[in-house]
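Sorry to interrupt, but I need a hand with the structure work. Could you add the entry underneath, on a fresh line?
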Amino acid sequence: MRYIVFLITLRLGAQPEVDRYLNDLAARAMARRTSEISTLTRDSLTQRQAAIRQKILASIGGLPTTKAPLNPRITGTFKRQGYRVENVIFESLPKFYVTANLYLPDSGSAPHPALIGVAGHSANGKASATYQHVWITLAKRGFVVLAIDPMGQGERSEMLDDATGLSRPGIGTAEHTTSGLQCLLAGNHIARYEIYDGMRSLDYLLTRKEVDPARIAVAGNSGGGTQSAYLAALEPRLAAAVSSCYMTSWHQLWTKPGPQDAEQVFPNFLRDGLDFADFAFSFAPRPFLMTTAIQDFFPIDGARAAYQEIRSAYTTQDAAAKAGYFEYDDTHGWSKPRREAAYRWLEKWLLGRDAAPQEDPVETEPEQLLYATATGQLRTSMGGETTQSLNAKDALAIHARRTATRSLDRSTVINRAAIPAAAPAFHNFTLHLPRNTSGKAPAIIALNATKEDLADLHASGSAILSAQFAISTVGRSESGYTSPYQMASRAFVLGQTVVGLQTADLLRVIAELKANPAIDASRIRIYARGNSAVAALHAAYLSSDVQSLATEAMPLSWFAITQARMHRGLPEIIIPGVLKDYDLPDLARAIAPRKLLMVDTRDPMGIPLLMSKVKAEYPRAEVRYRPEGWRFSKVYQGW
């Protein structure tokens, strides 16, 4: 059979078009913010501080409202010249254990100034030799230091493989990203738990008679610098803050290297007119120090621009001296020059001395000596909650109350998925019309089909409109994060979703097919493979012009993702807060009585599910299995 082939998108180059659209939204959001902060006064900064906190809290799903007992325990102790160390465990939330080392100085008189020390993305967390240099040096200088393991690091790896004892995705950023995407589905955020850990760390310090409540600071590098900035914005009891190798500007970060760890991607952040400097704005006029690396992957030009904004804001409070900045020409990390800048800052504002301290040689401790747990891992010694398990419980309650249990309407879906009403064509759709067909041809929109399956589709006698849902490649080579994650994250900070952009494209081409005189508008079907099936399901729900839908290898549900200990390959289907309103089976029910054929539906790890499991979730769908090697025409016979 011969075909006439048309390319019906208005613009070529689908990958750059997604980027251009998001780039334009980002540029407009950044320009609005620049205009807003250009006229900051003392009074307007005070108003902005309240707005910053409100927007951050909304983005992370708020903080826990009830403080549970800390139930602290000291599991070991040892003494060194000038200080001693206690290994500590406390509960941030019930059975959500925080492992820590408390460094107590011998010098000076109590109560001492204190520091919450937050580690960057080191595998051994608080026990990293680099970070031990900071904790030990400050203890010798008269500070109490509470060094904590962030979840997913040190003794708090949450995704250990029982057979190997290793983290399945990888300790640090990989664990954070895995849990972070799950949190988003429930309207939570992984930073919510990190921030609350920091706040409960301060609560613990306040139980210690050695600590002066009025002189507690926070300091950290990289991921720890991130947490320091967040705590500065949200914790009013802090007296000073140091953020190393994190603060920059989204204007420079946007393209290279692009969005980073899941804890650093807040939904709606840019749309709501925020940038890195706003964390420090919220802290003004308390002392806030940025330390930076000229060769960092967090762009140095962005760091310098952020500091100028911060200094200007602090000047409105007559506190320019409390906006600190230090840079050094090296790469990312808490290197000695930046550590020494932190010592100077903390001593100046918490000890009242303008010293120029040099870091004396430090002998770090073996990691095992700093274990607060018996085995070096909470999971194998005490168990307890994880970020995933806490979020899974929230998701269970939220899912049970979702809007769709009462009713589901178009506006709810459109708003939650952020489907733009007017958007450019994001993808190239190629139309194949059968040449020797009398009358109007039925049409199949084929998404992410394999070449072999497209060959079978072309032989079916239908017009085939095919596309591969492309993923942005911006930033991939420099960031270490996948292209799907990068594009999804860019969309999130702008209040957009990849599903929403893809659905908008599908609704556009459905309308074009309907208007095409060669197409039978009453027989438009969609076949979607893999993650593209999520957008196809949305389009079929929103457009009654879709006669039927066939999905292959679609993830079972968003709820299933939140309940799984692991998942992979799903960032582009994440919609923040979606479980508050609906899930994929809800869309499927709303499509009935139109036909829904589901083939090889997958679990969160991409493994095909038993047909009985799929049928239980999708009782009105026709469920099939595709044996290895079976042709499309055989599997989809009768569709």
In short: The first strand starts at residue 3 and ends at 7. The chain has a mean pLDDT of 93. The first helix runs from residue 14 to 37.
